[in-house]
Amino acid sequence: MTCAYPGSGAITEIHEAGTCAMYKNCGKKSFFGAQLPCPYNGPAVPPDKTTRAKLIDVCGSSWASSDVCCDIDQLENLQTNLKKAENLISSCPACQANFVEFFCSFTCSSNQSKFVNVTGLGRATSGKDIVTELDYYVQPDTAIKFFDSCKDVKFSATNGYVMDLIGGGATDFQGFLKFLGDEKPLLGGSPFQINFPWDETPSELTRLEYSAKICSDPDERYRCACVDCPGACPSLPPTKAEKICKVGIMPCFSFAIIILYSLVLIVFVLTYKSIIQFRRGPFYKPERLRLLQGNGGDSDDEEEGDIVESSEMVEGPSTSTYWLHRALQSRFTTIGLFCAQFPGLVIGLSLLIVGIMSLGWFHFTIETNPVRLWVSPTSAPYKEKEFYDSNFGPFYRAEQAFVVNETGPVLSYETLKWWFEVESNIAALKSPIYGIAFDDICLKPTGEACVIQSVTQYFAGEFDNVDEDGWKEQVNICTENPVDCLPPFQQPLKPSMILGGVESGYTEAHAMIISWVVNNGQDGSALAEHAIDWEQAFEAYLLEVQDQAAARGLRVSFNAEISLEKELNKSTNTDAKIVVISYLFMFFYASYALGRISFRDRLRSLIESKFTLGLFGIIIVLLSVSASVGLFSLFGVKVTLIIAEVIPFLVLAVGVDNIFLLSHELELVNSKHSGEPVEHRIARAVGRMGPSILLSACCETIAFALGAVVSMPAVRNFAIYAAGAVFINALLQMTMFVSALTLDQIRFEANRVDCLPCLTIEVPSPSQKGEGLLTTWIRENYAPSILKKEAKAVILMVFCGLCAIALALVPKIQLGLDQRIAIPSDSYLVEYFDDLYTYFDSGPPVYFVTREYNLTERAAQKSLCGRFSTCNEYSLANILEQERKRSEVSYIAEPAASWIDDYLHWLNPALEECCRFKKGSKDEMCSPYAREWQCDVCYADRDPPWNITMNGLPEGSEFMNFFSFWIESPSDPCPLGGKAPYSNAVVPDYDRLTINASSFRTSHVPLRSQNDFISAYAAARRIAESISRETGVDVFPYSVFYIFFDQYGSIFTLTTTLIMAAEAAIFVIFSVLLGSLRTGVVVTATVAMIVIDIMGVMALWGISLNAVSLVNLVICVGIGVEFCSHIARAYMVPNVDVLELSRSRLKDRDERVWAALVSVGGSVLCGITLTKLIGVTVLAFTRSKIFEIYYFRMWLTLVVVAASHGLIFLPVALSYFGGSEYSIEDENGVYSDVTTRRYRSLFEEPETADSEDDEEEEEEEAEQEMRH
């Protein structure tokens, strides 16, 4: 029975120097309680020799002469309690000295009654009065210095602070002393209540004041190490902050682009107006007058409708040709004639060759491992991961769940009871194939208990330990001081790791966070297979738990290690359906657009339909993909999901375009040369379109092939397969499809039904004359409209302006690929990732790994340690600690777990519960709880002794010998034991007496976005480089996510390099094949503008730059070429038949642009633009966010931007800056060019024919005149 006697004056009446307030121990409150002091308000007592010796041993030499208010029993208890703290604070002598002085003064000072006032008494089990409560008056300045000396001391084993353990995580001196004084007898705290009043000091009392040490004390005996004392740290050089130049809110680059464009626009407008004014002045002479005066020369500034050339026209036509044009036309004509004459042979040989190449499918493999997909095996992160896995084992597998109550606290007695049952069921789960339980595969740091990070571990994982009325108090105690609630696996649980959404206290948290840690193995190993098998059962059970939670008004989200890959595969399967539907839509459109289907003459439509031809074109696309996959699979190039989903679309988009070009060219040839045999007409069409197809195929193949030099496997493999498929597709179209086109034309002219060629329908033969409505509209309306002077100027300014805006937006493009985008929108992982970013307030762990460094030498130890006075100023531990203090740039949140410091401090003989040998032995350790008389403290009698300067610490074989004991030492009762925190952190080599590898664990700040992850990786890489530079140690950073974010350090440079290399290739190919540098420059600039505009849309539409969008940008270059190449070649080598349709008097470049648009503009619009637009539109219905963003959005942008540039900007740019004309050899070997036509037009006015017959007569007369 105990009782209390409140009051201040009745118990301690005398407050004078030399007077005590307490003396000796009078008993315990209960059987399990600690000894409590007797109330004693008498004079201080001179100690006997034994007490004096113990006093000096415990409190120091300054107590060698004074009287005391304590006896030897009290000193024994004091020493025991101080030892508990010394295990944690011995690395900081100032903190340790203050700790000792603070409690020695409280317990033994002869002036005790001057600052201690007993306010409560109780009755001990012995019947004596005992002190149960008192006030301890301390000078605030002394308390502040005491707190400051200890607040930054680290506890490496938990990556935390000693203050979390000895001060309850206090942030000021009041909280620190309150925690020390609160009565917690059963938890190792104060056995009675000690209050620290701060308001007023009673007149009879004086606050305790002593010369408290500071952690950066000038006396080396008390100076703390850098990691424990900011004032003792060197200053790190400032980081090279990213220079963000802005003008207002606008980046300087964007501002410069806008200003530059504005200046160019002003100059252009002023120049244009000046020319107009000049032409209206008295000195301007019309062209016809200059011709009559013999005043020749070129003029690109003529008014619309004027003839540009003069004396050259009068002299006669030019017959200059480009040899490559003639050679290519001749070769393709020959190829076309052969394929038309022997269609069966060509088709058979093509199928045979494709079949042989497709045999490589037997070696076909799909790469789904994200590491091998996105990381080059020669890159530093890949090699570092291999080193980490081979030395420390593959990074553990983490299964995690969130239990969320969005309307109130998630914790309640009923919820805890239910969740204990859930965890019990999970522990009992058996995997479906191998029958594996969690205990078989879990991580066991101590070799016994599994790591489960959960609030249930605050109750030792047993629901029997949960008191219905006291569970909240238990949670509060454990969250304040996790070391007092060690789980069975002996590592303190930080409350932020297990409770989230905390507003007013952890018991009011909105979310429980539970993590199960599973051992991992190398791919294909039994351990990995067993873990995957168990995760299948875990996933199935948690899906059931979600329903149970919903019935309780809660929500459960979770993630197993296998979940992401499974959900991605589910997304891929869904995407595959959408992609197939997209292909079908493009196929049906192509089949419809190729034929002349009339709903009024349905019988004729059965013949004019091109459904079979379209199907054959699709088959050729599939054959080219099959041949490419087979060929490169044979050489061991693995297929990725990007290749499987994208390349058929890409090849189909390119292939359909060529089908339209050949088919429409054949229609034009048929209309002009209907009397010739089918084979000759096919040869003419191939001769005209073959060089254009070759031009685009070469550009696309080389543009894609350039990606093969990239080390990133996903991009490299895509580039290889894409280049091969596009090239093979072009070959098959110029051979196999030409033969099919011949057979279809023969069928058509024989009135045979499409799809059923054995059926013949007698219907009137269609007129081969005329052209499609689209071609007529382009010839009569569209082309003349955009070639007007005013229209051209506006188009040029608008497109250049849009390009300038897009270029200004490029810096706004974000990097990264959010995992939530990669999974289906209805996946259960969506809620998990949302909860992860919302409730999980801890960052991912990061390890700084050392390689092949002989730490048995003193110099090496000093380059890594941080808790000894002679550690290098810029040692690994010191640099990490300084970086932690600037977390806004380092992204390091916690003190590093320094195994070298904990190991060497474990040897400190003052820590009597740590390193202990059995009596009389030097090679057998005492068990943790062996009695003192059974053990000898290590290093107790060593010469030189253990000291903070490291002089007496072990080296060589002695280092490795003690290390072998430490690494097997538990964390209880000595918290510096190495088994639990470091058993997987150090790789010793006892044969070579060295440490092969070791890791220093810390963690990042919470990372909430892709930019955070990228910046954290860059910061870790910078820190590791600085450590290596300062210490000479080979150090690299490792975290499980680093390997995926390494690409972002160079992705922008890689993107720029790939695009620029592709642009250079385009320029060379166009300049050589077209014979014009100027046209090559125009096309190259147009493709560059297409890519820049697409990147500008990426910034506006939330499309980040990553490996997926990089592949798509490479595709954009290839498809951009497709939109430009045919018009460019038709401009340089205009079709004679199309030129004969012209009745306008446009100047040179304008007329060739007009001819190019009439010749191939319809094919570009129908074959390229609409086909792709239809296919892309279908992708909008996908459930996959990644497909919607990175395929639908980017490809839709590509189609719109590339089509507008190819059909609007490129013709205008060619009319301004295109290359000079070349003569064309017609079918009769006679040269015809634009100049020749104008030679005739000088002497006649254009007429408009009243009928098709009149047009034909006039064209024949013009042709005869030209021949003469």
UniProtKB/TrEMBL annotation:
**Under the cellular component aspect of Gene Ontology, which terms does the record hold?**
endomembrane system; membrane
Q: How does it sit in the membrane?
A: Multi-pass membrane protein
Keywords from the named record = Disulfide bond, Glycoprotein, Lipid metabolism, Lipid transport, Membrane, Signal, Transmembrane, Transmembrane helix, Transport
Highest taxon of source: Eukaryota
- List the GO molecular function terms: sterol binding
Annotated spans, Disordered: 294-314, 1242-1268
* Location within or outside the cell: Endomembrane system
Indicate, by first and last residue, each region the UniProt record lists as having compositional bias (Acidic residues): 298-309, 1244-1268
- What is the protein's name according to its record? Sterol-sensing domain of SREBP cleavage-activation-domain-containing protein
Species of provenance: Lipomyces tetrasporus
